[in-house]
Every structure is written in structure tokens, then in C-alpha cells.
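Changelog note: in this version the structure field was regenerated for every chain. One regenerated record is shown below for reference.
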Amino acid sequence: MKAWLLVFAAGLMEVGFAISLKYTKGFTALGPSLLTMTLAGFSLALLSQSLKVLPVGTAYAAWTGIGAVGTALVGMAVYGEPRDAARIACLLLIVAGVVGLKLVSAPH
């Protein structure tokens, strides 16, 4: 279970990384650039720790799914990105995939 918590935390860091990337201005803005690199580093460090227990394909797919869904939700909530039913349905499919991976994956 600890490994899955690490994947979830890494996914949240991935959301922060993706959102902060928006403010780097092509990595010319120092503060946002440092934040982006820090969050990316922590995200990868947490993911790598989870790989001590979880299969790499499972952990990576869950990590990217958490990051993608979280970033899309922030985009909708903060930046007014589209909230149409088809987009929500697709995000729910990603969530279902991540949950499914958790349910069917045993540590190696």
C-alpha cells in the first residue's frame, strides 16, 4: 500500500509540475522554472521509490494518469478550460484505468 501512496503523491507532484510549467515562459522566468524542476525531481524520486515494489508499467501508467487527470481538473477549475460531458467522460475512463491497475496489480 505504501508504494501506491508514493505513486499518488508522485502524481500530485506531476500536476504541480505541469501547472508550474505554464509560468516558466520557456524557462526564462527563474522562480517558476526552479519550482517546475523541483516538483519534477520530487515526482520522479517518489515514482522511483514505488518501483522498488510495483511493476514499472503499472506504476508509470498510474502516475501519468493521475498527473493527466489532475492537470485537466486544475485546468477546468482555474483556467476555465472546457467542462463538456465528453471530456469529463474521458477523464473518468482514465480514472477507471488507474483504479483498475491498482486492483489487478500485485507487487512483483
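Spot check on this record: The helical segments are 2-21, 30-50, 56-79, 85-104. Residues 58 and 90 are 20 Å apart (CA to CA).
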